[in-house]
Design brief:
heteropentamer, A mainly alpha (494), B mainly alpha (113), C mainly alpha (94), D mainly alpha (140), E mainly alpha (120), E: 120 residues, mainly alpha
């Protein structure tokens, strides 16, 4: 089965196409989607262990020889990300059964999610820079559908902004690929890496590196380019927001990590320094936002930006502990952000508002929800032994090893801000004077709460079992530290 | 030839930025269309403009153009076609819903709406 | 022979300039539509000439394509001017 | 005011078939020469748009009762199924096969599995384009 | 000999076509109102492009040696659509109320429209 690594892309795509045929049959839509995601998850597990056993899987589409055709490459980093994004999508779909209203369900909501998963998995798997652009567009097109679905006024307004920003960044992506092609003359990522090393990274390549940082930074929301994210993400309903928050920015972050560890490794004094400074500024900006708002959605959304900064800081250090920590933190963030958004969604559904000042006293009526939220919040802030701890520890250790004392201190300080911001939600929403709330019917509440608990449980397991995960993570970071492994897997024994 | 193309691309980008900074939503969409045209043209130019014949291998033709940029452009055109069409539908719907296509009147934050 | 074809290309370009003058100036909207239509026609001639000059018949497909697009554009413009909408829901009612 | 569109409508009846034939030609020419599913699909869609321009939505939907969403889905399925056929032969995805056939009148012609993929693209393009045009155009 | 004859045929048709295209250009610039300009655009431009395409067709037939049916189809297409395009533009111009040149001598549509307006 040399095509195994394509299955996480193909299965959602195939079933999404089938689902387009009967949009009105809601029950079939639900269960086919759920079954598809389970199947994808299973295939991804098989792929994970195959990658662990046999090393990087690579295939070139259409039986072309390697640098000419489109390569698909599944190394440990990408397969881990594919696994976690499929998992998150599965749980969000489960959550959507009780959350999403009838109109959206019968207007291509589930095909949209499956197409988005296709794009996300494809962007993680591809080994061709232009093909990455294509998969980005696939996921963006379906995210346009998801963000505007329902057609409320605020959604229409914010989606215009969102689409405009993404169209501009796509055009910039094409421009960047054009420059890269004119200098290097190839599009295969492994081949680009070889050729850049041959020409010894002249100035123009550094320009391209900064352009890539801009392009992926717009999608991944780094410091000066995050402006569109908070208001746009606040518009769609919670399950869509959870998917966006957990996955879309991470695709941009993954692309930055991939390009900066595979292509632009020779002029680290400039490019990685720039990346580090931007990462720290991102953390600062996110922290300010997370403390400034009284809107629960906004607080968690600004926490996305903080996490992006933390991951990129780790990626910019280019030593083993920091990169390993980045991978740890990336997957942790996908899981915990999904869980937090789902829990926030329950709180909003109960209180009917997203304004913290209008909430209070939920701990009396929904105690389990409160304690689950507290665990998730501690996990986000990185309290040992929960999941954020290992990643952050390794990133900070890498920062110290690379003599970036101040950056590491910022990371540590940001943990406090994160903790403060999420605990604020806990204090305002769960403690204090009880506010009159509408009781959810218990079946709906269970439908919302169980997926969220499952996700929190997975993230706790991820934190507790991190010792067991170290071999996987070190495989992932080894590929990033040493591009020759990747190149050898794609281009053959050369 | 590359010089002329550079000027054309620069002009397209200039016009696109001007249009995207205006208030009317329709102008913004036209601006994004121009922007992607400029990007496609840049991709074509950056692939090198040597070769007189079209990028099709046929008997007796040796000086054909590099086919890869053209394939990339076709893909990019398809994508930008889809995005622009979607954007137009969205603009139309939001014009119906919000009854304006002026971006200034569409502005608003969560505090006042 | 080549010089002749280049001369033809230059003459067509000059007429295209005249069409563009009418397109920019053209006091009413139908004037501009006429100019656009003629621009399409001149482009078709240009592609014929260029495919002779390049010595390849691959460009000839574009001739019919451009003709189709120019015609549809003209019809759509004039229908919009005349009726205020491009695609009618039902011709008998309005 | 009801207007008389006889000239336009009569021409359209003729022109539509020219456009449609040409789009089929472009579609089949697409393997070795310029053309293919995307251009062919766009041309067919423009032919249908011409019909919509000359007649009205009601007439065209009675003449061509096609659900364009289903058309898009079928096209996507056809494209992915063709490409996925290579999985069963354990060769890389998208690997295509071809053979030569003797057809009456046309002589020796080659037929590729890539053409099936292109048929899918054709259907998707026509479906998406017409969905968009209908959703913008057919609104009061 | 045949080569020279072929070249003469090609050159004469293309020259004929270019003359018509230039006539169109002059007409579009010089003629006074949109109705007379549609004459230039629809009639002489169509004729011009038909002749040029015929020349291209002859070129590919006689010099390169293959008959390209797409050009013939294109000629037929332009022959049908060119006048129809002119007609459609002219009608829309009249119905949107573009003024005629003051030197016009005949307006047959005005009394018809007047009569129809009375009927309603």
């Amino acid at each position: 089965m040399i095509n195994l690594l394509l299955f996480p892309i193909l299965i959602p795509f195939l079933f999404a196409s089938i689902l387009l045929l009967f949009p009105k049959n809601r029950l079939a839509q639900r269960w086919i989607t759920f079954g598809t995601l389970l199947l994808t998850l299973f295939v991804t597990f098989v792929l994970l262990f195959k990658v662990k056993a046999d090393g990087i899987q690579a295939i070139t589409l259409g039986s072309w020889p390697a640098p000419f055709g489109i390569s698909m490459v599944s190394d440990m980093l990408s397969v881990l990300l594919v696994l976690s994004s499929t998992l998150i999508t599965l749980i969000v779909v489960w959550y959507s059964f009780s959350f999403i209203d009838r109109d959206r369900e019968s207007y291509f909501y589930y095909p949209g999610i499956l197409f988005m998963l296709t794009g996300v998995n494809g962007a993680f798997t591809t080994g061709d820079i232009f093909n990455m652009f294509v998969f980005f567009e696939v996921l963006l097109m379906s995210s346009y559908l998801l963000i505007v679905l329902g057609g409320e006024k605020i959604q229409l307004r914010e989606s215009i902004k969102y689409i405009l920003v993404n169209v501009i960044s796509s055009a910039l992506f094409v421009v960047t690929v054009a420059y890269l092609y004119s200098v290097i003359g190839t599009l295969n990522m492994a081949d680009i890496s070889v050729k850049i090393a041959e020409v010894n990274q002249p100035g123009i390549i550094t320009v391209i590196a900064v352009l890539f940082l801009m392009v992926f930074g717009l999608k991944g929301a780094i410091f000066p380019l995050y402006f569109w994210l908070p208001s746009s993400y606040a518009a769609p309903p919670i399950p869509v927001l959870a998917l966006f928050g957990a996955l879309l920015t991470k695709v941009g972050v993954y692309a930055i990590m991939r390009t900066y560890t595979l292509f632009f490794t020779l002029d680290q004094a400039f490019t990685h320094e720039l990346l580090m400074i931007l990462a720290i500024l991102t953390i600062v900006a996110g922290s300010i936002g997370a403390l400034a708002y009284f809107d629960v959605k906004k607080i968690i959304i600004y926490n996305i930006i903080i996490a992006v900064g933390v991951i990129l800081f780790g990626a910019s250090q280019m030593n083993e502990p920091a990169l390993m920590g980045s991978v740890f933190y990336l997957i942790h963030d996908i899981l915990i952000k999904g869980a937090l958004f789902l829990l926030i969604g329950i709180i909003i559904a109960i209180t009917g508002t997203s304004d913290l000042r209008k909430m209070g006293g939920l701990i009396k009526t929904y105690p389990t929800l409160g304690w689950t939220y507290l665990i998730a919040a501690f996990g986000l802030a990185g309290i040992p032994p929960l999941s954020g701890f290992v990643g952050k520890l390794l990133i900070v250790q890498g920062g110290f090893e690379a003599d970036n004392l101040w950056g590491s201190i910022f990371i540590l300080a940001s943990s406090l801000v994160v903790l403060l911001s999420v605990i604020r939600i806990f204090i305002y929403a769960f403690w204090g004077e009880p506010v009159k709330v509408q009781m959810l019917s218990s079946s709906v509440y269970r439908g919302l709460f169980i997926p969220a608990v499952v996700l929190v449980g997975i993230s706790v397991l991820y934190g507790v079992g991190s010792e067991w995960l170290v071999p996987f993570m070190s495989d992932a970071s080894n590929v990033m530290l040493d591009p020759t492994i990747y190149i050898k897997a794609v281009l053959g024994g050369a | 030839m590359e010089i002329i193309m550079s000027f054309v691309i620069g002009f397209l980008f200039m016009a696109a930025v001007y249009l995207m900074l205006s208030k009317s939503l329709l102008r913004i969409i036209i601006g994004t269309g121009l922007l992607s045209h400029g990007a496609h043209l840049l991709l074509l130019t950056m692939g090198g403009l040597d070769g007189d014949a079209p990028p099709v291998v046929s008997p007796g033709v040796s000086n054909y153009a590099d086919p890869l940029p053209q394939a990339l452009i076709l893909t990019a055109i398809v994508i930008s076609f889809g995005v622009t069409a979607f954007f137009l539908v969205l603009a139309y719907r939001s014009y119906q819903e919000l009854e304006t296509d002026n971006m200034n009147l569409m502005r608003g934050t969560e505090d006042h709406d | 022979m080549m010089i002749f074809y280049w001369g033809v290309v230059i003459l067509i370009s000059l007429s295209m300039l005249a069409f563009i003058y009418r397109l920019i100036k053209g006091p009413s909207v139908p004037d501009r539509v006429v100019a656009l239509d003629s621009l399409g026609v001149a482009l078709i001639c240009m592609i014929g000439m260029i495919s002779i000059l390049a010595g390849t018949s691959f460009f000839l497909e574009i001739i019919l394509l451009l003709a189709i697009l120019a015609f549809i554009g003209t019809v759509a413009f004039s229908k919009f001017l005349e009726k205020g909408e491009i695609i009618q829901r039902d011709n008998d009612i309005s | 005011m009801k207007t008389n569109d006889v000239i336009l409508q009569t021409t359209t009846k003729l022109i539509f078939f020219i456009i449609f034939l040409f789009s089929i030609h472009i579609f089949f020419a697409g393997h070795y020469t310029p053309g293919g599913g995307f251009v062919g699909g766009l041309l067919t869609a423009s032919g249908i748009v011409l019909l919509l321009l000359a007649f009205d939505l009601k007439t065209v939907t009675t003449a061509l009762p096609i659900n364009y969403t289903v058309m898009t889905a079928v096209g996507l399925l056809l494209a992915i199924a063709t490409a996925a056929g290579s999985i069963f032969f354990n060769v890389p995805f998208f690997t295509h096969a071809f053979d030569y056939f003797e057809l009456p009148l046309l002589g020796k012609q080659s037929l590729h599995t890539a053409m099936l993929f292109d048929t899918g693209v054709y259907l998707v393009v026509v479906g998406v384009t017409m969905t968009i045009i209908q959703s913008i155009g057919a609104d009061d | 000999m045949t080569m020279i004859l072929a070249n003469i045929l090609i050159i004469s048709t293309i020259v004929f076509g270019v003359i018509f295209i230039i006539v169109t250009a002059i007409g579009l610039v010089r003629l006074p109102d949109v109705y007379s300009r549609t004459h230039a655009a629809s009639k002489s431009a169509t004729l011009g492009v038909m002749f040029i395409l015929l020349g291209v067709f002859f070129h590919f037939w006689f010099i390169e040696g293959h008959i390209n049916t797409r050009i013939l189809l294109g000629i037929v297409f332009l022959f049908i659509t060119g006048p129809v395009g002119g007609h459609v533009i002219g009608r829309s111009a009249y119905l949107t109320g573009v003024k005629m040149w003051e030197g016009s001598v005949k307006d047959d549509l005005a009394p018809v429209l007047e009569e129809r307006r009375k009927k309603q």
